[in-house]
Amino acid sequence: MEKSRRYAKSHEWARLEDDGAVTVGISAYAVEALTDLVFMQLPDVGTTVTAGESFGEIESVKAVSDLYAPISGTVVAANTDLPSQLETLGSDPYGSGWVIRVQPDSVEQLDALMDQEAYDKLTGGE
Amino acid sequence: MPQRTPLAEWHENNRGRMVDFAGWSMPVQYSSIVSEHLGTRKGAGVFDVSHMGRVFVEGNQATKWLDSMLTRQVVDLPVCRARYTLITGVAGEEDDLHLAGAPVILDDALVTRLADQKDGSQRFVLVVNASNRQRVVRWLQARLPSEGVTLNDTTESSAMIAVQGPLVFGHTTEDVFAGPLGSVFVKKVLEQLAALPNYGVLETELSGEPVLVSRTGYTGEDGVEIILGSSQAIGLWKSLVEEGAAIPCGLGSRDTLRLEAAMPLYGHELCENTDPFSAGLGFAVNIDGRDFPGAEEIRKRRSSSGRCRIGLVFESRRAARSGDQVIVSENGTDSICGEITSGSFSPTCERGIALAVVDRAVAEQECELEVQVRGVRLPVERVSLPFYRRPRHD
Predict the structure, then answer these.
(1) How many angstroms separate the CA atoms of B60 and A51, rounded?
(2) Sequence-separated (6 or more) residues with CB below 8 Å from residue A70
(3) 3-class DSSP assignment, residue B110
(4) pLDDT score for B330
(5) pLDDT tier at A2 (50, 70, 90 boundaries)?
(6) Cis bond before residue B210 (omega within 30° of 0)
(7) Closest chain A CA to residue B321
(8) Does A36 contact B316 at a Cβ distance shorter than 8 Å?
(9) Partner residue opposite B318 with nearest CB, options A35, A59, A62
(10) What tens digit of pLDDT does each residue of B190-233 get?
(11) Min CA distance, A16 vs chain B (Å)?
(12) What is the pLDDT of residue A3?
């Protein structure tokens, strides 16, 4: 099992962990583009999420954006420290800035997401 | 392709996040909206507002004609003074402006009276919104008298820069020299600017070219708005930023600053069919004994005005947005009593704030209000407006 990140077109990332859960967060590119984050709404543990559908929202001074689940499953953890420390999303987007952990219905759904190279291409990176 | 202000290249080269706004390529922000906002509140911010329309009205009938076109009285406007007004329109056969309903509020604007020409003809400048400029110009153009008034839309051959914040004029008349304007104007002009009252205007020169400096703004701070020729804009901007230490600010902070100051934004607090009295803009309508397009209808609206504008503060940083419903609970029953016209996180209050229009009956009593924000009901506290008022030093 590779532990590399996969990305959704809507800029969430997903990473399969050793315990079979998938950690979900927001890409550094998206956080940089949003700027001025002021509020975040997380789902409760036990909530069912569906790939491509909204599981929460993030609000900046300018606008409110939905967070879309990159994979279907059940929320087993939410980073409840995050809403009061939104700067973590920018300082450590792939570590302590994680958003939720999902027990996936089917790990194979990750294959439908972009790998690092494809995501870099989408966002104009190297 | 959106139009470019004379400063567009500077914005692009200095991390400006450019968006298409009302047909213009404008910066939303350079660093962060919050830091630009607070920089203006604590120091001085500089804004490229060249997208705003600048329409000069001149002629020996200019005063009389403008007075018949604007909701605000013009005949008593002194030279070198600006006044906030609405521009109303009514449907007419010769127009393809698609004015539905009568009257329609075409825009809100600042009208400034400049010094008369030597031959006695009067001069005015109207500053209108970018999004409404073409419509307003066509409306006014079609109603010019056969002689005695000319209209000249100079928007695309000029620039407009706002400099706002407590460091622009400071506390004493000497402070202007140390502020950002001190790096731009000569001593005599700075003294004249420091002596300007609010809404006072100075016609002066910058490097030998005419400029118009108004003690006006859209942030709630003291400061100026400068209209100048396109070719001078970059020099003035660079001096203000590089020597005057003013912080470049984009449209994002301009909006949060104006919201804290409870200043109206066309498309939010007022639209085509807004009743100005419900929108808290009764002061912008001088209706008694005057005539302007739609005056009769607006007079009727005044007497039947059943709603009014209020300010709301949320408990959290979460903000309601335009169109969200305001709900009142009375005797265990909930009902919709109004809606949000503008809402945002407030960097000064560090909470969500919003302007709303609600039923007058609700506004006049102490009620528990909530706002339906994206499926969640959030309790709100009513506050007096504006949300932010700058400290006075007199």
Answers:
(1) 69
(2) A6, A7, A8, A12, A13, A14, A22, A24, A51, A109, A110, A113
(3) strand
(4) 83
(5) very low
(6) no
(7) A63
(8) no
(9) A59
(10) 999 999 999 999 999 999 999 999 999 999 999 999 999 999 99
(11) 31
(12) 64
Q: Does A62 touch chain B (CB under 8 A)?
A: yes
In chain B, whose CA is at the least distance from the CA of A86? B317
Instruction: Return mean pLDDT, chain A.
Output: 94
Are B34 and A57 a contacting pair at CB < 8 A? no
Is the ipTM, as predicted for this complex, more than 0.90? no
* DSSP tag of B42: H
- Range B351-357 average pLDDT: 97
Q: Across all residues in chain B, what is the average pLDDT?
A: 94
Residue A87 contacts B where some CB pair is shorter than 8 Å: no
In three-state secondary structure terms, A47 is: coil
Strand blocks (E) in chain B: 3-4, 18-21, 24-27, 45-48, 53-59, 81-89, 104-114, 122-128, 150-153, 158-164, 201-206, 209-214, 223-229, 247-249, 307-314, 325-330, 333-346, 351-359, 368-373, 376-383
The single residue listed with the structure tokens 């929108």 is B279
Helix H, strand E, coil C: the string for B160-213 is EEEEECHHHHCCCCCHHHHCHHHHCCCHHHHHHHHCCCCCEEEEEEECCEEEEE
**Across-strand partners of B45?**
B164, B247
Token pair, residue B230, equals: 């396109």
**What beta strand segments (E) does B18-74 contain?**
18-21, 24-27, 45-48, 53-59
Min distance A111 CA to chain B CA atoms (Å): 32
Residue of A nearest to B322 (CA): A63
- What CA–CA distance (Å, rounded) separates B11 from A99? 34
Bridge partners, residue B326, by sequence: B338, B371
- What pTM was computed for the model? 0.94
- Closest by Cβ to A62, choosing from B33, B316, B317: B33
Spatial separation of the C-alpha atoms in residues B337 and B340, rounded to whole Å: 10
In the predicted structure, residue B310 carries a pLDDT above the cut 60: yes
- What pLDDT score does B306 carry? 87
Between chains, do B345 and A57 touch, taking CB under 8 Å as contact?
no
pLDDT of residue B93: 58
According to DSSP, residue B377 is labeled: E
Q: Is the pLDDT of residue B94 over 70?
A: no
Residues of B in contact with A65 (CB under 8 A): none
> What SS3 state is found at A113?
coil
Q: Count chain A–chain B contacts defined by CB atoms under 8 A.
A: 35
Contact A36 B345 (CB under 8 A): yes
What distance in Å separates the CA atoms of residue B68 and residue B206, rounded to the nearest whole number? 34
Q: Given an 8 Å threshold on Cβ–Cβ distance, is A61 in contact with B374?
A: no
Tens of pLDDT along A103-122? 999 999 999 999 999 999 99
Q: Is the dihedral of CA B129, B345, B261, B34 positive or negative?
A: negative
Query: Which chain A residue shows the shortest CA-CA distance from B17?
Result: A33
Question: Going by C-beta distance under 8 Å and a sequence separation of 6 or more, which residues neighbour residue B348?
Answer: B37, B38, B41, B260, B387, B388
